[in-house]
Design brief:
There is one protein chain. This protein has a 7-stranded mixed β-sheet with strand order 1-6-7-5-4-2-3, covered by helices on one side. It is built from 5 helices and 7 strands, in the order βαββαβααβββα. By secondary structure, it is an alpha/beta fold. The chain starts with a strand and ends with a helix.
Amino acid sequence: MEIKRKWAMPSKDTFTIKPIKKLLNKYVGNGKNWIDPFCGLNSPAEITNDHNPEIEASFHLEAEEFGKLINKMFKEDFDGILFDPPYSGRQVKEHYKVLGKKVTQLDTSRNFYSRVINPISRKIKVGGYAISFGWNSGGFGKKRGFEIIEILLVPHGGHHNDTIVTVEKKVQNTLEAGKKKRKVNEKNG
């Protein structure tokens, strides 16, 4: 695993921050066959979603609904996902307030992220990538078949939290599938 630390000014438009933009160019390229459930502005992904109807995006759904739709609508798996959700419960509340929507306790819990990640992680092909942004490096995780290959820490100075970018590669469909495969291999010698 490679860990880098590059200072940059903060921006609400994550994908425009210089070291993050450079990392995205490395993995995402032109964004073809990539998805983004929280696209905001400047997402390089081909298929985008933002619940704010004023943001230019392919879809304007709650991220959880977008994940379910992706599973139903697309037969092929994707090369990768950009996962740049609100980083805290407070930010979730702010996003909902701007749209005049009521936020629930479920929307500000850790479950908020899992409800989006679970359906979408199944649509990333083995060998594809999940690039997550936030204040932690949790990412999609081993139980969903992902392995961390790179972490970029982007400090912003002063009392700003670092933006942590976690790049994971999908190495198998699920951890459970990997366990079953190992057991079969052990039996066969």
